[in-house]
Amino acid sequence: MNILITGASGMIGSALRTRLTESGHRVFGLSRSDDSAPFHYDPTSDCVHLSKDTDLDAVVNLAGANIADKRWNTKRKEEILNSRARLTRALSLALSERQTPPHTLLSASAIGFYGNQCTAPADEGCPPGDDFLAEVSVHWEEATAAATHAGIRTVLLRFGLVLNADGGVLKNLVMPGGLAVVGRLGNGSHKMSWISLTDAVDVMMACLKNSNFAGPLNVVAPEVVSNRAFAEALSKARRRPALPPIPAAIVRLMFGEMADAALLASGNICSNRLNELGIELRHKDLDSALSHCFPP
Questions:
Q1: pLDDT digits over 163-186, tens only?
Q2: How many Cβ atoms from other residues are within 10 Å of residue 46's Cβ?
């Protein structure tokens, strides 16, 4: 297949690109800086330009600014939203206008869609939350409308925390030099839903192959853990001590709005749809995933 990936240089995009290439597919990236590239996005005009010389069988949309890179202010929140919704809307429109549209669009979203879920687990049928990350996820998903209306099979990938030793959340939780790991935040009771990078790629590969699967999908492992348990498991896997707990008030002082929306929020999420794909996750429990990330 000919497959276009946005966000191809990111952690998830790089891993998917490698897997697709090894499987014999032809993979293209979407450039944001080279106007002469066959597939590029012009943020000034808010247009995605797609080469007419290459038919696309599928598109995987993974682009989006890192939510934890900087402290949130009005400008940064606009960047987080626009890097997702605006690009996705422009991409969907461009795909819908092609003479031969691709069969499939996999478009990233996040379990932040559900907001602060601290009681019963949220599945794909649950409504969105009401905080900033929920708002971002709703706009992100709605931006695929043009593709869906054009008959393109669209899968909305609501990713949990993606675990990989070289990037993502784990990179932020291991102190420089690897001498210690971040301990629990607040009282450590808030829930964390996660997926190993290997399993995340497996899920995307299955979504590309299954021509009948569409709609939202929570990309999470079955085991949901507390922040306290996550910190303890990470300390054990890294064979390094955990730093003392950071009180919630200090987390809020350090990170502002991001604290309650992301760092202290519960992500108690399950997936009722993974079985439809007919795949078996390699890492169903956290210890297995972390052992894979940090082998003895």
A1: 999 888 998 898 877 789 999 999
A2: 13
7-66 residue pLDDT tens: 999 999 999 999 999 999 999 999 887 777 889 999 888 899 998 889 999 999 999 999
Asked if CATH classification 3.40.50.720 holds for the domain at 2-293, the reply, yes or no, is yes
Residue 134 CA to residue 92 CA, distance in Å, equals 21
Contact 111, 270 (CB under 8 A): no
Q: What is the pTM of this model?
A: 0.95
CB 275 within 8 A of CB 218: no
Cβ burial of 264 (10 Å; 0-12, 13-18, 19+) is: buried
Instruction: Of 261, 266, 263, give the one whose Cα is nearest residue 77.
Output: 261
Distance separating alpha carbons of residues 291 and 100, to the nearest angstrom: 44
**Cβ–Cβ under 8 Å, residues 32 and 49:** no
What is the DSSP-derived secondary structure letter of residue 92? H
List of residues 6+ apart from 77 with CB closer than 8 A: 132
Domain residue spans in the chain?
2-293
Q: Which residue has the tokens 């949309």?
A: 61
CB atoms within 10 A of CB 170: 23
